[in-house]
Design a protein that fits this description.
single chain; YgjP-like_metallopeptidase; Zincin-like; UTP_pyrophosphatase-like; M48 family metallopeptidase; 4-stranded mixed β-sheet; 9 strands; binds zinc ion; 3 domains
Length: 219
């Protein structure tokens, strides 16, 4: 039945099936069932790498710089001691929270931790690539957004980075940082833009492919 096509839309979380007119309903259901595991893994991958939808249950998978960490929740007595710690050896992220903290509170604590880490990771990368390009923005910002990884507002000379990049490997973060700085020189993605990218990051196309492989699960 090569005419039955499944489209897995990870953004809207639906599976669209197109089948020839007259195709029996049971047959369509059977085909969808046959692909159940594939569909499940596509949905879970998206959720796993999207920091705006983290699995905040004990043992849930939390992304950080292209790797996945197991979440451990530790209960503490005082709200002032709320904290996050990461252990690279046993690949865990521990949230120190109060027992009556809601999922929303947990999300807030984790997001603040992501913000703090992303800022620390970004600063040296920005310094490095701003020097290479020979341009620096007047202001830099971090936001959780849908639709872009980075954006350069040329007139205001401001660059915003999407916090969701924290889930990506650092070479992908570097790609976005360089891309936005090259925009301070070349507004569009034309020949000059591409030549500058190649000059400063010879493997930038390879990094873009890596970005695309994650992109399906994010925006
Ligand atoms: Zn661009």
């Amino acid at each position: 039945m090569k005419n039955v096509i499944l489209r897995i839309d990870t953004k809207d979380k639906v599976v669209r099936v197109s089948a020839p007119f007259g195709c029996h309903h049971d047959l369509i259901v059977e085909i969808v069932r046959k692909h159940k595991e594939k569909i499940k893994s596509r949905f879970s991958k998206r959720a796993v790498f999207d920091i705006s939808e983290p699995d905040l249950s004990e043992g849930g998978l939390i992304p950080f710089l292209g790797q996945l960490f197991r979440l451990h929740i530790e209960h503490i007595e005082y709200t002032t001691a709320r904290n996050v710690s990461i252990n690279h050896e046993d690949r865990t992220i521990t949230l120190f929270v109060c027992s009556n903290d809601s999922k929303r509170e947990l999300f807030h604590i984790l997001t603040q931790w992501y913000f703090k880490n992303f800022r620390n990771i970004l600063i040296p990368i920005i310094d490095k690539y701003a020097a290479k390009v020979g341009r620096k923005a007047n202001t830099y910002g971090i936001k959780i957004v849908n639709g872009y990884w980075g954006i350069c507002r040329n007139r205001a000379k401001s660059i915003i980075f999407n916090l969701k990049l924290i889930a990506m490997p650092s070479e992908v973060i570097e790609l976005i940082v360089l891309h936005e700085h090259v925009h301070l020189k070349h507004f569009n993605h034309g020949k000059d833009f591409k030549a500058e990218m190649t000059r400063l990051m010879p493997d930038w196309k390879h990094r873009e492919d890596e970005l695309k492989s994650y992109q399906r699960y994010f925006i």
